[in-house]
Amino acid sequence: MEQVYSYDRTSVWDTQKVSNDAQWEIIRSRSLEDTECIPQRFSDRGKSGGNDDRPALKKLFIEIRSSYIKRKLYVWRYDRIFRETQKALEFVELCHKHNVEIISISEPLPEGSSSLALKTMFVQLLFINASMQRETIIENIRNGLAYKRSNGDYISSAIPFGYQLIEGKIIQNEQEAKAVKRLFELYASDDYGYKRLADKLTEEGYLFNDHPFKVHNIWNILDKSIYYGIVKGGTFGEYKGNFEPIISESEFKKAQAIRESRNVTKVNRREYPLRKKIICPYCGRRLSPTQRWNYSKTKRLHYYHCTKRECPGIYVSATKTENMLLKILKRFVNEDVIYQGIITEIDSQMKQLIKKEKQKDQKNAQSRREIVKQFEDGIITLDEMKDLLSSFDESQSKQPIPIENCRTQLDQLLELRKQSIQQLLLDHVEVVTVQKDKKIDGVFLQGLSENICIKK
């Protein structure tokens, strides 16, 4: 039985476009008619044709590359596979190489188009035509928007608070327009901040979309020039609308002057002693400090967070994490069990290393004796013996001295006990590891390889 595949894709959920299921039904019927087989289906929903990272498309590529036997691939249109001409041509070449015939139901190849050259030319023509159609549509839309702008028509689909859309024209919503006008009047008195102004409007019975005014609603309304008749036209630039403004230009500019006078740059003066010391439990990157504003509690919240975009990300409370670390450091300094446990561990490592050093010295002495014996037996000359001994001694001198490293760690550990908790935190904490539940599971001080968070 002939092996048959199908691929369908939609970039967005839209009832006016040919859905994945509609494409599949068309392909399925055609495949049954041609081959009496139901194709192996590969389907990507809500995926752009310009995006190569599509799960079903990746699986289709693997399937195509897996064999060179004759097969068929049904698609509704070529642009379901790729939007870009070059990528579509590369896909056609791959299918031709692996003996896979592409059948586009809406764009059938002319009779006798079996060669790769003819397929390539046909696909190029299809994509050139599609590109011209897209450019024409975009140009027509832009021309239409430019015409609306020249007439002063509102060209956005988002209707601001205070207005409503009726038969393609925006007119004032009487109740909402009163709220906007009152908002600017109260703010112009210079007696109200955003929070107090929101409370005042609610107290007077004004609502924002059937809800009490919030601080961000006040900010958004004060920021919009549309209320005095000027539309921000995006790439077309600002223009005067043909609708009735709610306030005057002078009222708007007075509000902006008050906002400017109250605009104080907020500087984060908090110290972050664990900056670049906490390791992200997901990707291993060191966390950076950040702050957020909690409107419900009207205060800043401080965090350490992962800045890597591909990472699932983690936010740990700066205050909670620092307090947790202080407790660990206090226990480390004050509890002899932990402290002595680390010293015992380092001491044990030193004893093992001394034993290994003795064994190594015995082995080196044996190697030197073997070199000398080769000279005595006449196997090597005197100069060769000197060179071999010199090379051997040089190689041994380059070896690290782990015992000295352990002694240094022990000296540093004894010195650390004299430091204050705060000084340990600021100067000596090198790495802090946290679990995905944000609990600290590792604390490593400078010069020490032992995790002081582990209870001995």
From TrEMBL:
InterPro entries: DNA_bind_recomb_sf (IPR038109), DNA_bind_recombinase_dom (IPR011109), Resolv_N (IPR006119), Resolvase-like_N_sf (IPR036162), SSR_resolvase (IPR050639), Zn_ribbon_recom_dom (IPR025827). Coiled coil: none annotated. Keywords: DNA recombination, DNA-binding. GO terms for molecular function: DNA binding; DNA strand exchange activity. It comes from the Bacteria. CDD domains: SR_ResInv. Residues 160-265 form the Recombinase domain. Residues 3-152 form the Resolvase/invertase-type recombinase catalytic domain. Pfam families: Recombinase, Resolvase, Zn_ribbon_recom. The keyword DNA-binding applies. The keyword Cell cycle does not apply. PANTHER family: DNA-INVERTASE FROM LAMBDOID PROPHAGE, SERINE RECOMBINASE PINE-RELATED. This is Resolvase. The lineage of its organism: Bacteria, Bacillati, Bacillota, Bacilli, Lactobacillales.
